Amino acid sequence: MASFEETFTQPKTTVPKKSSGIIGYDVPDGVDIRGRYDPEFSKILTRGALQFVASLQREFRNHIKYAMECRREAKMRYNNGGLPGFDPTTKYIREGEWVCAPVPEAVADRRVEITGPVDRKMVIDALNSRAKVFMADFEDALSPSWENLMRGQINLRDAVNRTITFQDQARNKVYKLNDQTATLFVRPRGWHLPEAHIFIDGEPATGCLVDFGLYFFHNYANFRKAQGQGSGPFFYLPKMEHSREARIWNNVFERAEKWVRIEKGSIRATALIETLPAVFQMNEILYELRDHSVGLNCGRWDYIFSYIKTFQGHPDRVLPDRTQVGMAQHFMRSYSDLLIHTCHKRGVHAMGGMAAHIPIRDDPAANEAALELVRKDKLREVMAGHDGTWVTHPGLVPACMEVFTNNMGNSPNQIHSMKRQDASILDEEDLLQRPRGVCTLECLRLNTRVGIQYLEAWLTGLGCVPLYNFMEEAAAAEISRVQNWQWLKYGAELDGDGLGVKVNLDLFGRVVEEEMARIEREVGKEKFKKGMYKVACKLFTGQCSAPVLDDFMTLDAYNNIVIHHPIGSSRL
């Protein structure tokens, strides 16, 4: 995996047409803000907040670099034929009789959680959705432009302060928070992502430390009063591959608690198990976070993406159509069952996966059929022992809440009632079993269509995109990309629709051409012309056909949304 410094190209630079007086952020020594100056942003990028972020960056940057180097070494092992597995040196942790700190009352009941970007109206709608939790997302559901990141921080500050409103001019309607709202969790970016608009000591800041640091600094006190019942703030932690990465987060939390003089263990976080290596580290991740943990989550779409990425050098592990890789596959069911057993043994929540369906308003029959699939999936989760689940649309909250409530009753969770001891015997063979299924031309087409359209939206500022009755985030585009790459690399045979042909560059080229024409018909010529579909197509197809698989599509695409302004920082 190339480092950001190796892949980052010179960003676009915008020069202000006119300036008067002093323009710029008041920054501490060693900090350089290269994003656009805005008076509202300056209320987030205060000297104190930037000092806090800089202190985190300086204390932990070498630990982060080491963790990323360890990822690269693990990738080399897998590419050379190795398999992930349980670490024999940490067997004592897996077999030990320890538990995490007690779950705070404020987050005991998490039976339905809604996720979404930090867009202002989305924040209001999600908090008002009657879900138990809203996970505000700086990661997969957000295109990390400077504007999106800063406005997202403003929106969360206003939400915590309960001053957030949104005026819809077209509908002449003002949106505001209800008296009762969901509890707010925040998901920062992963360890691998930089923040190229903020430089600290001459290098880009770590994106997740910027997201976490700015939000925590401005909101910890009011959040603990208004939502946390004396605990919090609460977070979701993405994309970890090893417990050493959880250890960094734990140390970040302890450093933050000391900085503002709150009790150790106040900050709580749920770690997403969404990479294949991490499934073998679940006990170890919880152990490192045991004073700050409130569970693990099955990030199943990213998990499928990670399965392909981990086995990119294994021609015997070509994944079938992604639509066939559901929770009925043995390796996926084993992952979910072992997560439940591990969490409940350690006294914390085991959260289920995402329901990405969105209401089909113009077809009631199709909408009801889609809802029935969601209900069945959520029934499987609650019966397996999950304590809650994820949705992306407020319209799914009532149906999912009903399924969990009907099966959990008045209990806020199943931590003590569903130990799933039967899952304790699951081993590497269960977790790595090859998925069964076929490859089809239709999947190649769908992957291409979804990947290009998502990337186009991401390049134009949207990270959460409705496509074909699903609310797609980066994970869907990543699955599309890596599956196309894998099928091209190993010449997958399209045996599922009777074609019997193998995927090659000629076939892929024809599919791309035909799917671009279809996209133009679906979105309309005017939107297609004004959009960035051709740029997205070039980026997406280039990554699908590259000789070496990029670790993340968004690392390469990030260069297209970074805009540096020469007037950003000042020292007043």
Oligomer: single chain
Shape: globular
Q: Residue share in helices?
A: 40-55%
Largest sheet: 8 strands, parallel, barrel
Order of strands across the biggest sheet? 4-5-8-11-12-13-14-15
Roughly how many Å is the radius of gyration?
23 Å
Uncertain segments are 1-10, 13-20
Number of strands: 19
SS content category: alpha/beta
Report how far the terminal alpha carbons are from each other: 40 Å
- Report strand %: 5-15%
How many DSSP H or I helices? Answer: 21
Mean pLDDT across all residues, rounded? 94
EC number: 2.3.3.9
Enzyme class: transferase
Organism: Solanum pennellii
Pathway: Carbohydrate metabolism; glyoxylate cycle; (S)-malate from isocitrate: step 2/2
